[in-house]
Design goal:
242 residues; Rossmann fold; three-stranded antiparallel β-sheet; 8 helices
Length: 242
C-alpha cells in the first residue's frame, strides 16, 4: 500500500497569525512551523486554541491577520491534507461504504477502490468489519475508521483533534499504535491532546498553548525534563493553568 503522499504541503509555516471572532482574540501572534518527521503534539487546557490552530493549518479557516504557507505557497487546496475531529460523523452505510465514499471523493479510480478499501481496513485493524454499519461500531472502531477515511486521500499531513478522548485504555492504545504506523509511513501527524502521558509517548515535539498563544515549544524530552516557562512546569505538574 502506498500511503506515502508527496510532501508538497510541507513545511506548513504560520507567521504572526491572529484569529479574531467578533473582535475577540482566539489565536494571537502564532508563529509556528510544521515540518516532516515525528508527530507534533499540541497540548493545553480547554479553550487554549488547539482546535482553531488545527483548522487554520488545515486551511478550513483564514487568519484575521498574518500569513500561512503550505510548501511555500499561500494558496494551496487541501488535497494533500486531512483532518479528523472529535466525534467524527459516520455516513449511514457500512464501514467499507464510508471508505468507498472517501475514495470516490479523492478521485481514486473505481477499479482500484475495492483493493484500497481492504488495505485501509487492514491498516486500521478493522479487516473483518467492512460490512458492519459504521454507526454500530464501538467508539474506538469509529475513530479508527475515521482515520482510515482521512487516509483514503493519501495525505502528506494528518491533523487529529483529541483522537482518544473518552476512549478506554485498550481503544486508546489501538489509536496510538495506528498513529505510530501512520507516522512511520512518512505522513506528518499534528495532533491535539489533553493527555500528557499520550503526548510523551507519541510526540517528537510538544507545543503548549494557553489563552490562544504558544507558551512553549520544544522537543519532547526537553519539554518534560527541562521546561523553560512557569506555565509549562505548572502544566506538567498537573496543576491548572488559569
Amino acid at each position: 500500500m502506498t500511503m506515502r503522499a508527496p510532501a508538497t504541503d510541507l513545511p506548513i509555516v504560520l507567521e504572526d497569525v491572529n484569529v479574531l471572532v467578533r473582535e475577540l482574540p482566539i489565536l494571537e501572534n502564532i508563529s509556528l512551523l510544521f515540518g516532516p518527521g515525528a508527530p507534533t503534539i499540541l497540548i493545553g487546557p480547554n479553550g487554549a486554541g488547539k482546535t482553531t490552530l488545527l483548522r487554520l493549518a488545515m486551511g478550513l479557516i483564514a487568519p484575521t491577520r498574518g500569513r500561512i504557507t503550505w510548501g511555500g505557497r499561500e494558496a494551496s487546496p487541501p488535497t494533500r491534507r486531512a483532518i479528523v475531529f472529535q466525534g467524527p460523523v459516520m455516513l449511514r452505510r457500512s464501514a467499507a461504504g464510508n471508505l468507498r465514499y472517501a475514495l470516490a471523493a479523492a478521485d481514486v479510480a473505481r477499479s482500484e477502490r475495492a483493493t484500497r478499501v481492504a488495505e485501509l481496513l487492514a491498516m486500521v485493524g478493522l479487516p473483518g468489519l467492512g460490512q458492519r454499519p459504521a454507526r454500530r461500531l464501538s467508539g474506538g472502531e469509529r475513530q479508527r475508521l475515521a482515520i482510515a477515511r482521512a487516509l483514503a486521500r493519501d495525505p502528506a499531513v494528518l491533523f487529529l483533534d483529541e483522537p482518544t478522548a473518552s476512549l478506554d485504555p485498550a481503544a486508546t492504545k489501538a489509536i496510538e499504535d495506528l498513529i505510530r504506523a501512520v507516522a512511520a509511513r512518512g505522513i506528518k501527524v499534528v495532533m491535539s491532546t489533553h493527555d500528557l502521558g499520550e503526548a510523551r509517548r507519541l510526540a517528537g515535539e510538544i507545543v503548549l498553548m494557553h489563552r490562544g498563544r504558544i507558551v512553549e515549544q520544544a522537543p519532547t524530552e526537553t519539554f518534560f525534563t527541562a521546561p523553560h516557562t512557569p506555565e509549562a512546569a505548572t502544566f506538567i505538574a498537573g496543576e491548572l493553568l488559569v
